[in-house]
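FAQ: What does the model actually see?

It sees only this:
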Amino acid sequence: MAKSPQRGAGAHRRDAQGTRLRLLDAASELFAERGYERATVRDIADRAGANQALLFRYFGSKKALFGEVMARGGQEQLRSTPADRLFEVALRGMLAGGGGDADRSLEVCLRSIGGSDEIADALRGLGEEYAEVLATLSESDTGGLRGDLALSWLLGIGLMRVVVAKEPLASADPDTVCSLVVGALGGLLEGLPTGDGGRRVAEGGGDGAGGGVPEGGESRGNPG
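And it is asked to produce this:
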């Protein structure tokens, strides 16, 4: 008899954890689809099959929920993804359009631009972290600028595909887009490493994936 309350408490904790995760998933989806301002607390709770009172109990506020969504997605991606894979992993996440388990943090950024000052600050902070990691892939003294340019390219692709829905990009095959874009990226971030210390060649791109730029980088404007 004494064990029943313990089992009940454990079940309650598991149920609470499950509800919290469903709210996070629903918020991630709606923030990516609508942006921070247009994704309402009511709609998030409805999609999660919960009520608004539980959302506020677990997160305190919509802004705090947004912060957790970004931390779970973008921050986790930054922590767990090798620097030389970050651009492609983030790009594939945007191209997936919510399919599978793709992280949608950059979609959330794109949809939420122009929101409140506090949200804009959070988005800028995440963007700066992505750019800083990408900058480490350049051996040039303009690495910081190159990191910003790479991030701008990434977000520009997302803007044209996700928000503007510009064809043919909007319906282009993700593998094709990644092959073209990542293959050309070596001209900007020339120090992309591989596991054996050589230079990275994009999968499927062959030796010419970098747009005809020699591996040694002789035609680059700044050899670093």
